[in-house]
Amino acid sequence: MRRRLELGAARILVPNAIRQGDVIAVRALVEHPMYTGLFRNVDGTPIPAHFIHDVSVTYGDQEVARFTWTSGISRDPFVEFSLRADREAPLRMTWRDNKGGVFEQATDIKFVSP
Amino acid sequence: MSAFTRRSFVRSSGLAVLALAAKDLRAASWRVGAEGRARDIPWKVQQVLKRLFGDRTVHEGHVQLDVPTVAADGRVVPVLIESDLPMAPEPDSYVKEIHVLVDNNPDIHLAEFRLTPAIGQAFVSTRIKMRMTSPVRAIVETSTGELWGGAAEVRVTVNGCG
Known about the structure:
The complex is a heterodimer.
Chain A: E1 10-13, E2 23-30, E3 52-59, E4 62-69, E5 78-84, E6 89-97, E7 102-109
Antiparallel strand pairs in A: 1-2, 2-5, 3-4, 3-6, 6-7
Chain B: H1 6-26, E1 29-30, H2 43-53, E2 58-60, E3 63-66, E4 70-71, E5 77-83, E6 95-102, E7 109-115, E8 123-128, E9 134-142, E10 147-156
Parallel strand pairs in B: 2-10, 4-10
Antiparallel strand pairs in B: 1-2, 3-5, 5-8, 6-7, 6-9, 9-10
């Protein structure tokens, strides 16, 4: 059996050693069932659609990317994208689902001292 | 009615060859409602392309789409999309949007990734659900409105959509 889902628990992973100007890979995962609305329970009642449809990525105070998803993204949606680390600033991600849930996570982009 | 002469035969076969050549040139793009490659694209996908991009042509190339040939579980299919188009901070043109389409899913237009030059590289990787064996299409839209696409067939053994 699957462990119980902790809705909205999110992680953002960035590399340990970042130098200014690097294009880094950012990996992010949020725990979410991503129900399509097409599945049924064991007793036959349909499970209503519940999925993340909007993801926003903010670096400092600038929105650098925005994703529009459907229920076709797998459960516990994972996404990896790149980012040009040109300043030390927090990287903030916000996931919004179709039932009004808002999940946030942030990490600091810090440069290693040379 | 004119007789079937050698001259008319040469003329008509020449036209036929030209028509075939024109079709081959078109084969490298997906164009909604046009002949050529568009016939290979299912009607329902053409409708989605039309809604997203209007009558603009999607050219093949500049998109690396990395998907498994066989996906054991349709609930989790890793998809990696990369483009060699420029993503410079001072761009004339950068990759503005990456679209993911799956032909045989209930929701064909599966995801849309809007990027800015601050991203540094046109790259995105995620995991998707697939209902059945079907082509996965990635379409990249640049800020100047150019469309580049790539497609790959993924064989799915377990339905992941319900």
